[in-house]
Amino acid sequence: MASRRAGTRGRAAAGRAQRRSSNVFPMFEQSQIQEFKEAFSCIDQNRDGIITKADLKETYAHLGKTNVSDEELEEMLKEGKGPINFTVFLTLFGEKLNGTDPEESILNAFKLFDPAGTGTVNKDEFKQLLLTQADKFSPEEVEQMFAVTPIDVSGNIDYKSLCYIITHGDEKEE
After folding, report:
1. 100: left (phi over 0), alpha (psi -120 to 50) or beta
2. What is the pLDDT of residue 170?
């Protein structure tokens, strides 16, 4: 009887560990998880359930990039802090998608649009960039952003304050 209880406790502990490690799943919709599974399968070239350096190298080769160094591949794998199975893969994407860049990175990006070093960018010029470049914002998204953005009477955005809001949240929201 004691051995049966010990076996039950072992299974219960394993179940708790599994639940703890898989808490990333609620972050995504089922359709997104399916897309990540497909991507994982494409990368896991040998279909063993773990992404290895060889899998990454082969994936890059299929994409036409053959000059990826072993060091680059090892750096990618280090982000998983151990073997990269599907749950770890999904967790890495969850962290990347839900995280924000460090404040310094965001400030440096804004500085590109502020050659004079004033600490501001023109609202109208910035709006035009958001609507037309890279990951385009919708007009509604721009208006939502400007609702919490510090803009002076001249129509300039204090991007240092905006960076703080992006990385720490807006006091008005709390």
Report:
1. beta
2. 64
